[in-house]
């Protein structure tokens, strides 16, 4: 167990780190084993790092399927290996769920419910039926529209970060101090959130979305920064590129990417808030 030097942290972060350590210890006392749903995003990676620093053993699981870009699954596996974690890769597709195939407003809840069942099934197959499954939801998520939170509560999933009052800004700052790779990583939620309610998803469309977003993320300005800032390519049902920063001075590269993926013409919409457009 890594002893935390409170004097090495700002007072607010020292308090946050202490609350988190106490919450993680309490979680470990609730079950014979711990497990973490590792998406590869900054929240779940930070949770894994915090558990490692606390000296608490756990099993990490990553669900991969058509709703998760292959690039993100590869990154999750690579990060886990670099951190010495044995990662369970769990195949999962939500496309056969009626709520998902119909584009229902309950799609996120239905998907999360089925996903958690798949993760628990994998844990049971590994001899860990009573493991306490944890996710990386943070305190800010409790204030936002997150349909999947209901599924987490119903399934008895623990959210140690949220329960300890750890906000996104807290975990980014603590992560930077603790050596977490890319603590400023932007959120990249499930690809299903790119589709308006009522749109029917299919593997081909989701693959094209993932490919287009990967190419758009590689666009940089003259200073080497992401040209669009945070962004999402939405289908409403026509394509809408929602972006944080002004569109690049030259739109030719952007148009070429969108045309190649079959998303042109595309409306461009600059907004301050990127997440929460649909789910």
Characterization of this structure:
The protein is α/β, with parallel strands linked by helices and 279 residues long. The chain has helices at 11-30, 42-53, 70-82, 98-101, 107-125, 148-154, 160-163, 168-178, 203-217, 252-260; strands at 34-37, 59-64, 87-91, 132-134, 231-235, 239-243, 267-270. The protein folds into two domains: 6-178, 3-Layer(aba) Sandwich (Rossmann fold), CATH 3.40.50; 191-270. Strands 3-2-1-4 form a four-stranded parallel beta sheet, sandwiched between helices. α2 crosses α8 (168-178) and α5 (107-125) packs parallel to α6 (148-154).
Poorly predicted spans: none
Number of strands: 7
Rounded mean pLDDT is: 93
Instruction: Give the overall silhouette.
Output: globular
| Biggest beta sheet attributes | 4 strands, parallel
Q: How do you describe this structure in short?
A:
The protein has 279 residues and is an alpha/beta fold. The protein has helices at residues 11-30, 42-53, 70-82, 98-101, 107-125, 148-154, 160-163, 168-178, 203-217, 252-260, and strands spanning 34-37, 59-64, 87-91, 132-134, 231-235, 239-243, 267-270. The chain folds into 2 domains: 6-178, HUPs (Rossmann fold, 3-Layer(aba) Sandwich), CATH 3.40.50.620; 191-270.
């Amino acid at each position: 167990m890594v002893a935390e030097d409170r004097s090495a942290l700002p007072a607010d972060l020292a308090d946050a780190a202490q609350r988190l350590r106490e919450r993680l210890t309490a979680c470990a006392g609730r079950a014979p084993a711990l497990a973490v749903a590792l998406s590869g995003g900054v929240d779940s990676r930070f949770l894994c790092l915090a558990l490692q620093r606390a000296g608490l053993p756990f099993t990490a699981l990553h669900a991969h399927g058509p709703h998760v870009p292959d690039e993100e699954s590869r990154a999750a596996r690579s990060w886990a290996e670099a951190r010495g974690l044995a990662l369970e890769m769990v195949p999962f597709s939500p496309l056969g769920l009626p709520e998902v195939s119909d584009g229902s407003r309950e799609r996120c809840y239905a998907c999360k419910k089925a996903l958690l069942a798949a993760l628990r099934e994998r844990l049971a197959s590994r001899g860990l039926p009573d493991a306490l499954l944890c996710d990386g939801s943070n305190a800010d998520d409790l204030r936002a529209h997150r349909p999947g939170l209901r599924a987490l509560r119903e399934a008895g999933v623990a959210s140690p970060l949220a329960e300890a009052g750890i906000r996104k800004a807290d975990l980014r700052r603590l992560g930077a101090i603790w050596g977490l790779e890319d603590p400023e990583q932007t959120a990249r939620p499930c690809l299903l959130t790119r589709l308006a309610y009522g749109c029917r998803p299919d593997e081909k469309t989701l693959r094209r979305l993932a490919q287009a977003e990967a190419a758009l993320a590689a666009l940089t300005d003259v200073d080497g920064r992401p040209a669009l800032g945070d962004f999402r390519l939405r289908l409403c049902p026509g394509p809408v590129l929602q972006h944080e920063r002004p569109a690049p001075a030259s739109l030719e590269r952007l148009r070429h990417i969108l045309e190649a993926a079959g998303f042109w013409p595309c409306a461009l919409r600059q907004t301050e808030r990127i997440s929460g457009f649909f789910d």
